[in-house]
Each structure stands twice: as structure tokens, then as C-alpha cells.
Amino acid sequence: MRTKVILFLQKFLGGLGGFFQEAPQQGVGRRPTTFLLDSARILCYHYANPSRKEIPMRRLVFLPVLLLAVLAVILPAAAVPAARLDAVITVSGEAARLTDGKESTYLNLPAGASISVDAGGSQIAGIYLVFDRIPAAWQCDAGISVLDCGQNGFLHEYVEIPVAARTLTLTFPAGAAIAELSVWSAGELPDTVQVWQPPLDEADLLLFSTHSDDEHLFFAGILPDCIDRGLAAQVVYMTQHFDTHNRPHEQLNGLWAVGVRNYPIVGPFPDLYSTSLAAARTIYAGQGYKEDAFIAYAVEQIRRFRPQVIVGHDVNGEYNHGAHIVNTAALQKALEVSADASAYPDSAAKWGVWDVPKTYLHLWPERTVTMNWDKPLAYYGGMTAFQVSNLGYNEHYSQHWTWFTRWIRGTTAAPITAAAQIATYSPCAYGLYRTTVGDDTPGTNDFFEHIIPYAAQTPPEPETTVPPETTVAPVTTAPPVTTAETTAESTAVPALGEADGLPVGVILPLGVVVILIIALGSVLGPVGRKPKR
Q: What is the structure's pLDDT at 48?
């Protein structure tokens, strides 16, 4: 009976080992897992085979010691949740506004004001501030170190405290408007704490969104698809919403919800409504924004991010929104001059020039593509790009009363669950407006056909000097083309403690199983072996 049980356990562990070995793309840990499983299988084989020589006890003792050493590496690296510390916050004014959990309430601090934070006996690993308006530079005094903060112009800013500190003093030389302040211990931060990275240096895809929420509506599916494929996507907004106290937060919360981690670029232009290009230009000119200002803005973003692909709005503004129309009209003109250093020379001097390989416009009627935003994405655990974009739109609470909500979600009687269900202003319908790399293959429906993402590009080799008498025949190697079906897999190997995303709740029981097998075998000895006399 014992033999059958152990042999069954051996086969079971072998099956698990095969699963973990063959399914790394599912985010499952491989190296620590297969080590544990292989150890268990070897021991099972030994204990179930009476013909094998008995393993000396000193070697059996070595195995659990080695196992415990591996677990000692894995377990400390496993995610331990950070705790929100119950710190005492002292500030002139209504300090309760900083901890009420509402982004709509905020505290205005005058120039030179400071906030004291006392975590009692707890050590502070970081602080998270949600500003009502983008702050000027400010300082965080941690006792033995003063940190310069606010350098990136983030509305939501997490500051890591690199030294042991239980008290902090935050100083705002130019004043600040702060909605929320929270203090955190060491560990994995919850998803409500946004640790933004600066905008990209180079973008595989540059999305020209007019408003905060267009990226989840008319451009639904694009950002999740890029993230799932490991492509670098940068969002650029034409308008800013600082005439409100909620939409700037909704903007960041929505991007964060779909997985964007590089901070967006938010333009200087106000959100003004009109229903035609002529009316939009007139109303914006009345506010001091001439047509050239929009073109200059678009040119600078192109030169700064050097995108492989640009996606822009419908030339008719989807539902005839004048700001959408102005945005795309400026983009069309910017595309023709972004590679010309004499046009808008200031941005050319700062960023260089760039000719965009491919540009797609929403609903463009020529060289059309129909994107599939309804296929399951592994990165999101099987959710579709359209479903993920809905999560982003869900953060835009101030817009839920509008017709956009019915457009993207339908009604109770007729719900919309797939992007393909939307016929009017379909988020799947695009056209290749401009290309320097050739037309798309009909039916491919991939923004990145004929494009090599930056991460897959081979850096140029350093130039070498060839002796004059030597003739070297040039060799041209065609680079691989990445499409939706043939995205290059990452070859990065995670650290052992990362376990490739395997939860510690799985690794630990596997380790316990191996230890139990060792203990069982040590007590019972190999099955069927006669005791020595």
C-alpha cells in the first residue's frame, strides 16, 4: 500500500513539474518550483524502490538543509503587503481633509508652509500625496536626509524614504494644494498607491487623445493591447481639465487601472466645445490659442517620443466635437513637418527631428483595418482589451451620466460586452493615414505590421576601422517583423526570489511536501527492504 501511495505521489509531482516547466507564459514560477518538485520526485523514487542502495543519513539531512536554504531566498522576496501607518499629521488648517479618502476635498497651503508626520514607533518607508494641482518643487526632511520632491510634476506622487525615519517634515516653499496624504510601511503597496514612472524616452505607440476619457472610449482597446504585447505606449492629451477638481484625478486613475505606468503628457489647452473645425479655431483663438500653437505642440510630442506608430482621432471629431477635429488637423500638419529641422526649430534643437513610420486615424476610410479588441489577453488573466478599457472608463465617474456610458456599455436590456458590438464610431475601425514602411497586408489588422518595436531593435554596432587594402563585402540582415501573431518573447530571466510571479502560498506547501517525504522516508526506510540484523 505504501508503495502505491508513494508511486502515485511521484507521478502527481511529475505532472505538476511538467506543467510548471511548460507554462512559463502563464506567469507561473519555474526555477524554484521545479527544484522542489524534482527533489520530491527523486525522493519518492528512492523510497519506492527497494533495490536501490540506502542513502546515508548525512546525505538525507543535506537535502532538507538545501531546501530550507532555497526557501530562505524565496520567502523574504515574496510580496509582503505594505501597511498604511496611523501617523499623526500636523498642519496649519483642516488636517482631516488630508485623510478623508476624498480626492475632491483638499487643503490649500500658503508659501513656506510645512506638514509634520509622526509615525510613532513605526518606520516610514514612503509617503503618498495626491495633489489638487501640480505642485512646485518641495522637500521632505527625513532627519538625516532631505529629499527634493515634486521634480517630475506628478499630480499623484509617491516618495520612497531611503533612510530609517519615524518622523518627517514636508516643506512647500511655493505652497501647495493637497487632497490626500498617506504614510506607508515597507512592503508591496496596494494598487491604490500610484508609483508613476516618467514619460517614455521612446514610444512604440503615441496616442493623441483629446480629452481625459477618450483613451478608454473611442480608443478603447489600444492601451491594454499594447501592454499585453509588451509595447511601449505613451499617451498625450491635447486638453487639460484643471477647471475641475475631479477629472485630473480620474485621468490618472483610469490610466493606472488599465496598467499604464508612464506618466501622460497633458497639454495646455482648455476644453472648449464646438461642432466644426472653423468654429473650434475661432473659439480657441478667442482664448489666445492660434492654429500654430496646436501644430507646434503636436510636432514637439512627435520629436520627443519618436513614435513608431501614432494613433489619432477621426478627422470629423467622431461626434463632431471641435476639439477632436482641431487635434487631428494639427496632427496631420505636424506629420508633414516633424522631420524638417527648419520647421519649429526650438523643438528640433531640443529633441531632434523624426518622421513617423505609420499613422492611423480613427474611422479613416482608406486602407482600413479592423482591430480585434475582443480576444482574451494573457497579461490581464483572460480579460479582453475592450473589457480592460471599460475598467479605465469606470474611473471617470464625472462622465458616467453622459451618453458615452450607454455607447460603450449599452443598457440593461441590451448590454454591450464586446467592442465588435459597437457600430457607431466603432473603436475597432481605423485607417492607415500615412506610412513610410509600406501598406498593410489586407486582413492582418495590426498597427505594428512592418514595425520593429524599440525593445526588439538591435543597437547599432560600434564602427570599426577597416584597413585600406581590405575589401569587406556588405552584409544586409533583414530584421524580424513583429506582428500581433508573432510578438517576440522576452528573454529576461527573473531573479530566483521573484519566482516568475508564483505566489508564496504555492511554493511553501511544495517545500513542506518535500520535507514530509524526507521525514517519512527517514523513518520508514525504503519500502520492502529487510531490516539489518
A: 52
Q: How far is CA 358 from the centre of its chain?
A: 23
Whether 36 contacts 510, CB under 8 Å? yes
SS3 272: coil
Cell of 16: 505538476
Q: How far is CA 177 from the centre of its chain?
A: 27
Other CB atoms closer than 10 Å to residue 525's CB: what's the count? 14
pLDDT of residue 492: 36
- Alpha-carbon span 386 to 426, nearest angstrom: 12
60 neighbors 518 (Cβ within 8 angstroms): yes
Greatest extent of the chain over all pairs of C-alpha atoms, in Å: 105
Mean pLDDT, the chain, whole residue set? 83
Q: How many CA atoms lie within 13 A of 470 on its CB side?
A: 6
Spatial neighbors of 386 by CB under 8 A, at least 6 apart, are 220, 221, 373, 374, 418, 419, 427
| DSSP helix/strand/coil, 67 | helix
Residues in the chain: 533
| Crossing angle of helices 31-48 and 57-77, rounded to 10° | 160
Task: Tell which residue, 279, 382, 363, has the closest CA to residue 326.
Answer: 279
What are the residues facing 370 on neighbouring strands? 429
Are 181 and 127 within 8 A, CB to CB?
A: yes
- β-pairing, 233-239 vs 205-209, is parallel
Per-residue pLDDT tens over the stretch 328-385: 999 999 999 999 999 999 999 999 999 999 999 999 999 999 999 999 999 999 999 9
- Residue 510: pLDDT band with limits 50, 70, 90: low
Q: How many CB atoms lie within 10 A of CB 520?
A: 16
Distance CA 36, CA 53 (A): 23
Q: Would you say 463 and 391 are in contact if contact means Cβ atoms under 8 Å apart?
A: no
CB 386 within 8 A of CB 373: yes
Distance CA 253, CA 248 (A): 9
pLDDT one-digit tens code per residue, 50-60: 554 555 555 55
Half-sphere exposure at residue 253, Cβ-oriented, CA atoms within 13 angstroms: 15
φ and ψ of 294, to 5 deg:
-70, -40
For 91, half-sphere exposure in the C-beta direction (CA atoms, 13 angstrom radius) is 30
| CA dist 321 → 20, 141, 182, 210, 451 (Å) | 51, 47, 39, 10, 32
pLDDT band at 31 (very low <50, low <70, confident <90, very high): very low
